[in-house]
């Protein structure tokens, strides 16, 4: 059965463009325009909806009843039932489509235009949040002068060296010649600890013959590094303990009886150790001055002919690895 003309008119007038251009301002001012389309809402007061929506957007919209511009953002309202409406926005600025279902079961008929106008305005604002957000600030790079901290030297330096040595006493034999073996490690920065061994030999003339001397010592010490690059220099205190073997060789073995003695010997020394780094090797010079703590006296016959005592001085040329 054909519908009455009045019914058809009500149905299609609800599907038509109702009213509205809502924008950031009126098209006359060259700002964006919005259109509103209402579908299938025969009981809704569409004029009141348009008026209230314009009031909600009064700071950013104007209501234009005719000639909506091409490409305007479209707001649409569709009544899916008497108790539910679908709001939808096709936003030309954000190129997004957003929608929202609004339940109207608890809303009186004369208040629905107000509720829907508020919901439509809030949905539009939500669609535009990304446009109103402040852009991230670009932090311009600032040139800074960075002073690198001084490099902390590794306190675990280790080295081992060997080389020829010479030692002389203020009172006693001629110069002893031999070799020195030395190892040291920096247990803390600039604090070396050393251990070493020396074997020195001398042949001295005495009355009635000569004496052959062999001096073996062990040493231990610690010090402080004064210079680091390129020449490593340190001062050290060291103690030496050893054994002196003396053997008398008479000129006339038929008239003089030779003796062989073994005597303890010790000294306290102050050392300067200088090394030139030739990575991974080094070459160095070690100078020592000290005082004899345990004197050694050697005899060829019954008289005191040989004495190692008092001040001493020694020098060593070192060749080693590490440091």
Protein model, in words:
It is a single chain. With 323 residues, the chain is mainly beta. The protein has four helices and 14 strands. It has an eight-stranded antiparallel barrel. β2 (34-39), α2 (46-56) and β3 form a beta-alpha-beta unit. α2 crosses α3. The longest helix is centred in the middle third of the chain and has 16 residues, at 112-127. The chain is rod-shaped, with a radius of gyration of 54 Å.
Strand order of the largest sheet: 6-7-8-9-10-11-12-14
Shape: rod-shaped
Number of helices: 4
Q: End-to-end distance, in Å?
A: 111 Å
Q: The biggest beta sheet, please?
A: 8 strands, antiparallel, barrel
- Number of E-state strands: 14
The radius of gyration over CA amounts to: 54 Å
Q: Which band does the percent of strand residues land in?
A: over 45%
Helix content: 10-25%
Provide the structure class.
mainly beta
């Amino acid at each position: 059965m054909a519908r009455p003309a009045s019914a058809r008119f009500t149905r299609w007038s609800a599907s038509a463009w109702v009213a509205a251009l809502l924008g950031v301002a009126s098209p006359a001012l060259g700002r964006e325009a919005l259109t509103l389309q209402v579908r299938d809402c025969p009981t809704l007061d569409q004029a009141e909806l348009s008026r209230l929506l314009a009031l909600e957007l009064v700071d950013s919209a104007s209501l234009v009843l005719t000639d909506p511009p091409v490409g305007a953002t479209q707001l649409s309202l569709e009544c899916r039932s008497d108790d539910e409406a679908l709001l939808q926005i096709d936003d030309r600025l954000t190129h997004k489509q957003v929608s929202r279902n609004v339940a109207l079961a608890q809303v009186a008929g004369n208040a629905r235009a107000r509720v829907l106008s508020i919901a439509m305005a809030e949905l539009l604002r939500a669609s535009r949040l990304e446009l109103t957000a402040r852009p991230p600030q670009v932090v311009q790079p600032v040139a800074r002068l960075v002073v690198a901290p001084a490099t902390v030297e590794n306190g675990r330096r280790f080295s081992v060296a060997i080389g020829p040595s010479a030692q002389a006493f203020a009172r006693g034999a001629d110069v002893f010649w031999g070799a020195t073996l030395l190892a040291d490690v920096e247990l803390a920065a600039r604090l070396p600890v050393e251990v070493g061994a020396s074997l020195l030999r001398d042949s001295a003339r005495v009355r009635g013959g000569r004496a052959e001397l062999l001096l073996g010592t062990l040493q231990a010490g610690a010090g402080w590094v004064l210079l680091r690059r390129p020449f490593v220099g340190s001062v050290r205190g060291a103690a030496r303990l050893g054994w002196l073997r003396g053997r008398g060789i008479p000129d006339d073995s038929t008239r003089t009886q030779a003796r062989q003695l073994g005597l303890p010997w010790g000294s306290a020394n102050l050392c300067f150790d200088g090394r030139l780094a030739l990575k991974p090797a080094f070459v160095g010079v070690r100078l020592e001055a000290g005082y004899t703590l345990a004197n050694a006296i050697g005899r060829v016959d019954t008289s005191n002919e040989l004495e190692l005592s008092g001040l001493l001085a020694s020098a060593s040329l070192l060749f080693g690895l590490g440091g």
